[in-house]
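New to this. Explain these tokens.
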Amino acid sequence: MSGLPAALGGLVVTGAACTAGPDIVSRPAPAPQPIVDTSPYVCELIPEQALRLVSGMTGSIAGRMAGTEENGECWAPETASRPLQVNWLAANSRASQEQLNFLMEDRSSVYARHGGIRLPTDLGDGMAAKVTQGPLGDQPYRVSAKFRCGGKERMIDIYLTRVAEGRDGIKDLVELMRVAQKRYGEVYRCTPGS
């Protein structure tokens, strides 16, 4: 019985060592900064500050654009890796409408296979996904939407190579699409959703 008091004493010491003290404080992680629609813009549709926030990019972000209101693309910065790519297309005839539908169906199929999410209905028909396999893996963060603007069907794609640590890439893509559609309407003088 002489070993029993020593064993109980060890349990008391062990229990005291595991008790949380007043200097152990749990703090929640700070909420990520929201995406804000402010100028200047990259590729005319993406707020530069939002792109920096979402991607963690630093340095110069000059975009290179090609095309018109009907069909165009832009990437920034002007490097081989294209950290940001934005494509747009407007239907202007029956053939173009069929092409737009085909492109959106194709993207939706790929995004769905990679666990993509549907966009809110106010953004039209679209999805966002992280596609890490195959030829699309160079720009894995992707969002595409087909929407009406000024009585025409339009489509915008936004692709990113990376998302900053601590950011929700899919949520950020949805918000970037929201801003891009609004800016598209301002730049090309049409009202998104109409």
Q: What stands out?
A: The chain has one domain: 37-187.
